[in-house]
Specification:
The protein has 1 helix and 10 strands. The chain has about 200 residues and is mainly beta.
């Protein structure tokens, strides 16, 4: 088991590296390549990953606390039963990533690409998802109460049983997804009615 503390790396190639079952604290990785790397059971705390490529990497059972993964690529990565607690993921791309069993506690996932991902039954209360692309994603029975969904794209997303009460939903196209079985609050209900052309006094 390794431990890195307050290390800085720029343009370093970690592709296919076996860096599982270790701990990173306060480290900064800028434009590093982690393609195909194994980060299974790794633990990061207060780390920054800036414009890094995690394509095809594995994060199984890894834990990340107050770390930042900004403008990173997770194309085809496996995040099975990983945990992200109060992390900043702004601008990252999760196209084709496997997120089954993931745990997300708070944090900022704004401007991310989460198309087609499975976030069913997730506890996403209070999370920031501003301008995030959730098109065709599975959000069935997800708890999105008090989340910031301003400008989020939900085209053909599945939300049956999801709870949106108290969520900020400015600039959301309510006609782009099926609202059947979705729990909404009174303000949202008024906005839905307006979206369909009703005049609400």
């Amino acid at each position: 088991m390794y431990q890195y503390t307050d290390q800085e790396y720029t343009n370093v190639d970690f592709s296919l590296a076996d860096i599982k079952d270790g701990e990173m604290k306060g480290c900064t990785f800028t434009k590093c390549n982690f393609r195909g790397a194994s980060l299974d059971e790794a633990w990061t705390t207060g780390c920054q990953f800036i414009e890094c490529d995690f394509g095809g990497a594995t994060f199984n059972a890894s834990i990340h606390i107050r770390s930042a993964f900004t403008n990173c690529r997770f194309t085809g990565a496996n995040l099975f039963v990983s945990k992200f607690e109060e992390c900043k993921m702004v601008g990252s791309d999760f196209a084709g990533a496997s997120m089954d069993g993931i745990t997300i506690v708070g944090g900022d996932w704004s401007y991310t690409n989460l198309r087609h991902v499975n976030l069913s039954k997730q506890e996403l209360k209070g999370i920031r998802l501003m301008e995030t692309d959730l098109s065709e994603s599975n959000l069935q029975k997800a708890n999105l109460r008090e989340a910031d969904l301003s400008g989020v794209r939900l085209t053909r997303a599945t939300l049956k049983g999801a709870d949106l009460r108290g969520a900020k939903m400015d600039r959301v196209d309510y006609k782009s997804f099926d609202l059947t079985g979705v729990r909404i609050d009174l303000e949202q209900a008024v906005n839905v009615a307006r979206a369909y052309g009703a005049k609400v006094d």
